[in-house]
């Protein structure tokens, strides 16, 4: 059984991007692998946040994990800061991390641009902490969305470098990406759906809220844009963007429609998916009908999630227990690796 690690920042309500990019595959992986899923609170404080809201956000994220189908009997579910070895390994890995590598990270550039008044070293050093998260558990695979792929590559480079300089210690981790690896904002489909942008479909949104948000989604009236976008969603690895790059308006429509089809293919049953695929293919698709149908498919997909979450939220003692057990289990693996690293680096 190989080790897997992943996490989500408790920065707000989890959205469809977090689910399709990460959690959906976490659920499948928990049955066959030794999985560690954390709530990345130390990562959450690298961008502006309210301390008085953090505990609530952490607990809500654990509730979301459980309601989505993560099982504490199969997965180690824990809060990152409850295992101090993460911060300690980060310091040690920092001694072999080139600053230039950190400065070229796309997310560092984006986040420091987005939070100009909060441009602290935490945003720059974020990938070293993420490498520590992964390597502390000697994880081989990291199921994440596209935006985190570059960080996983850095973790792999650091593992190789550490092994070269101090002796074989870490496996070389790889990202696992899905077709939902980059879900875009509905109203601004050139940006990824994000907690802080606020335009995302929350996993706990009511059917009415989902329908309301979908009404604002960017679409197209050009049959060829619709067809190409649907094909791109089907073959997400070889998207045919080229035809639309010359016209920014049509390109935006293409991204918007592709995003809607990516979501449809991920959440709808086969008959529903085929029905809209055929309509896009023969140029008869009407978004006034497609949007409510997609809203229903999403709402149905998360009906069980909403039910389970309500039940789980009413039992705070059970939640406390899961969080405490997770910290104990994660600490055992983390302490072992940290001691080994300290010995290899001559600190013990
Ligand atoms: N739009 C997305 N499409 C697919 N996957 C996504 N992920 C995030 N957004 C999308 C994946 O979800 C996991 C957890 O993300 P995170 O919360 O740790 O990272 P983030 O980039 O900070 O998420 P947000 O939602 O964009 O939050 P804010 O607005 O606070 O920055 C990761 O695997 C990520 O790839």
Describe the overall structure.
This protein is mainly α and 348 residues long. 58% of the residues lie in helices and 7% in strands. The chain has helices spanning 16-29, 41-44, 51-68, 85-94, 99-103, 106-114, 121-136, 149-166, 207-215, 223-234, 248-267, 270-281, 287-301, 303-313, 316-344; strands at 3-8, 34-39, 75-79, 141-143, 174-176. It has a 3-stranded parallel sheet with strand order 1-2-3. The model has no long low-confidence stretch (mean pLDDT 94). Adenosine-5'-tetraphosphate (AQP) binds at residues 8-9, 11, 17-18, 20-22, 40, 144-145, 147-148, 180-183, 192-196.
What's this entry about, in short?
The chain is mainly alpha-helical. Helices cover 58% and strands 7% of the residues. It contains 15 helices and 5 strands.
Overall mean pLDDT stands at 94
Helix content: 55-70%
Rg, alpha carbons: 21 Å
Strand content: 5-15%
| Shape type | globular
Low-confidence stretches: none
Strand order of the largest sheet: 1-2-3
List the helices and strands and how they pair.
Layout: E1 3-8, H1 16-29, E2 34-39, H2 41-44, H3 51-68, E3 75-79, H4 85-94, H5 99-103, H6 106-114, H7 121-136, E4 141-143, H8 149-166, E5 174-176, H9 207-215, H10 223-234, H11 248-267, H12 270-281, H13 287-301, H14 303-313, H15 316-344
Helix pairs in contact: 3-14, 4-7, 4-15, 7-8, 9-13, 10-11, 11-13
Adenosine-5'-tetraphosphate binds next to helix 1.
């Amino acid at each position: 059984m190989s080790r897997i690690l992943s996490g989500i920042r408790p920065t707000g309500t989890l959205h469809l991007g977090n689910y399709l990019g990460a959690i959906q595959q976490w659920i499948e992986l928990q049955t066959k692998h030794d999985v560690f899923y954390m709530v990345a609170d130390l990562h959450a404080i690298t961008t502006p946040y309210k301390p008085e809201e953090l505990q609530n956000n952490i607990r809500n994220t654990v509730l979301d994990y459980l309601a989505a189908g993560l099982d504490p009997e199969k997965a180690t579910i824990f809060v990152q800061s409850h295992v101090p070895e993460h911060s300690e390994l980060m310091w040690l890995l920092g001694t072999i991390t080139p600053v230039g590598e950190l400065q070229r990270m796309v997310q560092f550039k984006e986040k420091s641009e987005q939070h100009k008044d909060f441009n602290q070293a935490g945003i720059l050093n974020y990938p070293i902490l993420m490498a520590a998260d992964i390597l502390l558990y000697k994880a081989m695979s990291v199921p994440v969305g596209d935006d985190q792929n570059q960080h996983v590559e850095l973790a792999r480079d650091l593992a190789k470098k550490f092994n070269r300089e101090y002796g074989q210690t870490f496996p070389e981790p790889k990202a696992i990406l899905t077709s939902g690896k980059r879900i875009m904002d509905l109203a601004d489909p050139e940006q990824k759906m994000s907690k802080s942008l606020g335009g995302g479909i929350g996993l706990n949104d009511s059917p009415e809220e989902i329908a309301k948000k979908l009404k604002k989604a960017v679409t197209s009236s050009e049959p060829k844009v619709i067809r190409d976008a649907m094909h791109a969603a089907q073959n997400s690895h070889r998207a045919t963007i080229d035809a639309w790059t010359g016209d920014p308006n049509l390109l935006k429509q293409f991204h918007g429609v592709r995003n809607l089809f990516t979501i449809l293919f991920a959440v709808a049953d086969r008959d529903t998916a085929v029905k809209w695929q055929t309509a896009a293919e023969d140029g008869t698709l009407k978004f006034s009908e497609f949007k409510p149908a997609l809203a229903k498919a999403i709402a149905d997909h998360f009906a069980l999630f909403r039910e389970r979450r309500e039940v789980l939220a009413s039992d705070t003692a059970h939640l406390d227990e899961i969080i405490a057990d997770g910290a104990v289990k994660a600490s055992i693996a983390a302490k072992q690796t940290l001691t080994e690293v300290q010995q290899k680096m001559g600190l013990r």
